Amino acid sequence: MRQGSSRAEGRGVPPAGLPQLYTALFMLYFAPALLVPVLPPYLEAMGLGPAAVGAVVGALGAARAPVVLVAGPLAEALGRRTALALGAAAAAAGALTLLTKDLPLILAGRVAAGVFGALAAPAIWSLISEAGGGRGRAISIANAVTAAAGVAAPAAGGYTAAVFGYEAAVAASALLTLSVIPLSRAAPPDPRRPLGEALRMLPAAARGAGRYAAVFALEWYMLYSLLALLPLYVKRLGYGEEVAGQLLAFEALVYAACQPLVGYVIDRHRGVYALMPTTALAYGAALAYIPHCRDPAQLAAALAAVAAASAPITPTAMARAAERSPPPRAAPTAVLFAAGHVGMALGPAVSGWLAQTSYQLAFLHLAAP
Fold it and tell me: Taking the model in full, what pTM does it have?
């Protein structure tokens, strides 16, 4: 579906709104990620032990997982612009509860942010997909935007906390998340679909996402396994956490740099879909090489290969799913993200269990998918 047909249907986003939507997407990922290096020590400073810290950190993801599948239909019923604003407001409120230093209220805020924040992802990704006429270029640029947020946010959050204090980092996270609300006005209001009708469309959405939901699950399985294993392996080699952070930032930079080329290839060479198994094999082979690295330079080379091999997977899957689904596309997008969350939950658990026996085995099993 091209941009012209999208406007003709009255449901597409004018191309002029894309910069605002990209900015909203950046803030949606950047603002919460400011708290990645801040939240555990902040909670520890409140007097919480490791178990309580883990419960608070994990509350958001635990609350989001059960609702992410129905988030797409809910976004279509509410209107995606409304769903995006509601998700941002809930995330900001959840961050602000940290300033109360009241554990029950903080947990409630994290749970609310997880439940309502689940609305934001299918809403904004489907809006961007339609803004670009379902083309790979729009999706790959969005992917680069989220990668850039992942690179910049932890360093910015750590610096803010070190210079201005933990409370300043928390306040910055909440305020920047709220900036998504005015930015969401770049998207026109959607014709709202009755919730019952939207829920009945989930099976069709699953068929539209097709095997690309499995691709999403495998991609997130491998990615979050890497995020769990790499810092531990780097520490085992005798290097500090800052080295692991620099290596992950480097991997994200390479990934982001590949995205414009990925979008160009997807849009002009539809046969690229047939190359996905080869790309996945290269991704797995690069991951399997990591435990043979003995210093940061070798790890950086392996991670560059990981980034380059994985770069086409998500935008290709989203572009293909978009081609197979009529707008609004929040429901099939939610199916993809629901599958991704399954991989996100299973990957670190299985990989961590295998790493207790052997890091070589833990990384090698990632080559199998």
Answer: 0.69
